[in-house]
Design goal:
The chain has helices spanning 146-154, 159-162, 170-174, 201-207, 281-311, 325-340; strands spanning 8-13, 22-26, 29-35, 41-45, 59-61, 64-66, 73-74, 80-82, 100-103, 106-110, 134-142, 178-182, 187-197, 213-222, 226-235, 250-262, 265-274. It has two domains: 8-120, Rieske [2Fe-2S] iron-sulphur domain (Rieske Iron-sulfur Protein, 3-layer Sandwich); 124-398, Naphthalene 1,2-dioxygenase Alpha Subunit, Chain A, domain 1. It contains six helices and 17 strands. The protein has a seven-stranded antiparallel sheet. It is an alpha+beta fold. It is globular and about 75 Å long.
Length: 412
Amino acid sequence: MTFVRNQWYVAAYAAEVGRSLLARTILGEPLVLYRARSGQPVALADRCVHRHYPLSASQLDGDTIVCGYHGFSYGTDGRCVAVPGQQRIPRTARVSAYPVVEQDSFVWVWIGEPDRVDPGLIPRAPWLADKGYTTVHGMEPLAARYGLLVDNLLDLSHETYLHGGYIGTPEVADTPITTEVDEDHRVIHVKRRMDDAACPPFYSRSTGLSGRIVRWQDIEYHPPCLYLLHSRVAPAGVLPRPDGTDPDGFHVEVVYAITPSTETSTYDFWAVARDFALGDPEVSAFLRESNRTVVLQDVAALNTLERVIAAEPPGVQELSINIDTGGLAARRMLARMAAEDGGAVPGESGQPTAREGGRPAAGATTPATAAGAATPVAAGGAAIPVTAGGAATPVAAGGAAPAPVAAQAAAR
């Protein structure tokens, strides 16, 4: 599997990064994270240059990591500042320091080329740090390639079958979707609007709603890392007002940060932000446990799928239908982004894509242009109108504009 390297990835929640040493592996690169006394998060390569002992298994002395094996010491910029038994420090005694940005309760890290660092590329999830929302969150490790989690989140019809009794109802699988691909801004939108649906326990117990509901699922995927699900529920027949206000709706912003660890393992960061029952600890506890249960159901299914795929011979094809248009668009976009980094263009799930080998995979329904770019497709196969230039009109997450941030200087 080829990673998209010249992009930002979530390495941790901000609350995880403190004065203890935290080990994470991002895109196959072992990192150690900690917070300097100034409050700035730091990310260094997690290997001492001497005998490659993990720095995450070492000690923090002020802002300096002292290797727990032979005492090589490193500053926040990765430069070695002390070695045992001699005054002269070898010129090459340093480890890589990675740019980091703390934003929207996440710590983002840049693994790619140092001269291409751009904090403006970080997508926003402003609800996670907004006092108008209450958030619960967690992280579950996945023993599967990250493309499988992307597929999973962009096709929510699986909620009906995998998450029944929590968030799944028959209407999720039965309701058609529309998919729009914004090539200019590199965002994939998938919408499912249910006008008359059963209210699953996830919402009935948290909102107090009973009976039939309006349920909207509006997905924004910002490849490669950030997934946003704008969810709205209300009593059946109750819609936002003509002026755009929506006092009778309940809004949940579900955020996933999909961070590849290795080729076959992934960090599944998840958060659920709500604009109701803000001070209710019982609602928070219920949503935390309920969403974690749903995530663990996904983890079990995807871990199983990874083992199946790993055992299959090369060239096995899969069948895709209308519900897969978002996932297929994501595979193509991720493949193009990886190619721009100089990598190959594989099927991101480990399966042949609709364009692989120059011929459609069996059952693939998303048409492509002569250049291989996906055309936005609605459920049922109808093309979605796009703006001049071929790009779908972008939808800002929560209407929030990106805020200026400062990246840590990298000593690479």
